[in-house]
Write a structure and sequence with these properties.
By secondary structure, the protein is an alpha/beta fold. The protein has 5 helices and 4 strands.
Amino acid sequence: MRKFVLAASVALTAALALSACNKSEDTDQAATQQEAAVAKPTNATDTKAWSQYFGQIVRKNMQGMTADRPFPYFVPAGDDQAGQDGRARQLENVQGTVARGVTPGNMLVFGGPESAKTADLMVEAFKGANPGSFKNVIVLFIGDQADQQRVADAVGPSGATFRFVAM
C-alpha cells in the first residue's frame, strides 16, 4: 500500500510540474505571436500578405461573435480585367448572402487593398438587405476613415452591428 501511495504522489508531482512547464510555454508562445504583428502590405496584389494582415485584425475584433468562424470577403484591387472580374464575382457572392440573410451570432468581414472599392462593393451589396434582417450579426469593415460613414449608412438598415477598423 505504501508503494502505491508513493507511486501516486510521484506521478501527481510530475503531472503538476509538467503542467506548470506547459503553461509557461503557452504564455511564451502567446507573447511571441503578439509581438509578431503583421504590417500593412504595400503590394496590392499580394493576397497572402493581405490575408495575414486582415486575419490579425479579425482576431482582435471577434468579441460578441458566437459562430464558429467569421466569413471574410476579400475585395481585390486593381482596375485591370482580373481585378474587375474578381470584384464582380465577390459582389455576386455577397449579394446572395445578403439576400438570404445571416444567422445571428455570425460575423461578416470585408477588406481589400483599396478601401474605396471595398466600400463600393458593400454599399451595392447591402442595397438588397431587408430591414432588420441582420439583427445580432456583426459586419466588420476594414478600410479608410473616409469610407466609414457611407458603409455604415448602407449597412445600418439591415440591423447589423457595424464595426470599423482603419487600415
